[in-house]
């Protein structure tokens, strides 16, 4: 049995007076790719932000590799090896690819060398001197993931990594995620693209209006695509 990387229990959170998450609980085990599905506004991003230490206020408990990280500031959670990539990817447009890559502090044994990064992302090596604004959306997404690996992340939280990308790039990201999984990483994805998620995920949680309304594994998802699509309103 793989050990639990992330254990979220009964998360309740919101913004000022508005309650968004209601008793969200989920577990992610080592080497899993777990996807949070749900319509726009369901609370997927808010859930990732709570895990990453970016929500001001919430109730509930979060453990990372067994250790409580509830309400720790983001930088401390990051140093423990939890890597968060926001939907907007967070690439500094005035810095070069190499500067973006090597900017965050490095921690733990999990931090990848530049050589290892460039082996998996040869394009980033070729484009090392280009500034952020010159990168395509796909290159920015790759850079954002590479930066988490360089910093030593053992768990990647990726918010809609395929959003706005051409199908051929989406495929590349899918291959990359499977490779990372094979290398021992654990991934939590937020995806609107269920077909993409189906290709890479071991398990799923569906959020609706801030609640987990369903959870199932890949086998179930493959057998019940239509039902799930209608649950997602697509
Ligand atoms: N910064 C914010 N301030 C106030 N309300 C927010 C903020 N961010 C998100 N919300 C609200 O919280 C709910 C969940 O949003 P979010 O977690 O971004 O959903 P999802 O990622 O599933 O689309 C939505 O109703 C959204 O309008
Ligand atoms: Mg979102």
Task: Provide an overview of this structure.
The strands form two sheets. Strands 6-7-8-3-9-10 form a six-stranded mixed β-sheet, sandwiched between helices. Helix content is 36%, strand content 28%. With 234 residues, it is α/β, with parallel strands linked by helices. It has a single domain (4-231), classed as Rossmann fold, CATH 3.40.50.300. Bound molecules: adenosine-5'-diphosphate and magnesium ion. Adenosine-5'-diphosphate binds next to strand 2 and helix 1. Magnesium ion binds at residues 44-45, 87, 159.
Shape: globular
Instruction: Work out the helix count.
Output: 10
For the record, give the distance between the C-alpha atoms at the N and C termini, rounded to a whole number: 35 Å
Tell how many strands the DSSP assignment holds: 10
Structural class designation: alpha/beta
The ordered string of helix (H) and strand (E) elements is: EEEHEEHEHHHHEHEHEEHH
CATH class annotation: Alpha Beta
Average of pLDDT? 94
Q: What is the CATH topology descriptor?
A: Rossmann fold
Residue stretches low in confidence (pLDDT < 50, at least 5 long) are none
The gyration radius over C-alpha positions equals: 17 Å
How many domains would you count in the coordinates?
1
Query: Strand percentage, roughly?
Result: 25-35%
């Amino acid at each position: 049995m793989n050990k639990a990387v992330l254990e979220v229990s009964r998360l309740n959170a919101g913004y000022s007076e508005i309650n968004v998450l209601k008793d969200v609980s989920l577990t992610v085990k080592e080497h899993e790719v777990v996807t949070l599905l749900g319509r726009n506004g369901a609370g997927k991003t808010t859930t990732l932000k709570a895990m990453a230490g970016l929500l001001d206020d919430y109730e509930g408990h979060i453990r990372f590799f067994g250790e409580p990280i509830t309400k720790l500031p983001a930088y401390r959670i990051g140093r423990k090896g939890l890597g968060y990539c926001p939907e907007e990817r967070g690439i500094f447009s005035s810095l070069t690819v190499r500067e973006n890559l090597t900017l965050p502090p490095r921690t733990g044994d999990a931090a990848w060398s530049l050589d290892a990064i460039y082996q998996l992302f040869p394009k980033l090596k070729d484009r090392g001197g280009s500034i952020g604004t010159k990168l395509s959306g796909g290159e920015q997404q790759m850079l954002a993931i590479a930066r988490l690996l360089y910093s030593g992340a053992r768990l990647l939280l990726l918010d809609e990594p395929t959003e706005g990308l051409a199908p051929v790039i989406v495929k590349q990201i899918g291959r990359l995620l499977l490779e990372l999984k094979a290398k021992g990483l654990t991934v939590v994805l937020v995806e609107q693209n269920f077909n993409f998620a189906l290709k890479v995920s071991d398990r799923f949680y569906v959020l609706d209006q801030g609640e987990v309304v369903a959870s199932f594994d890949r086998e179930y998802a493959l057998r019940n695509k239509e039902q799930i699509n209608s649950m997602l309103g697509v």
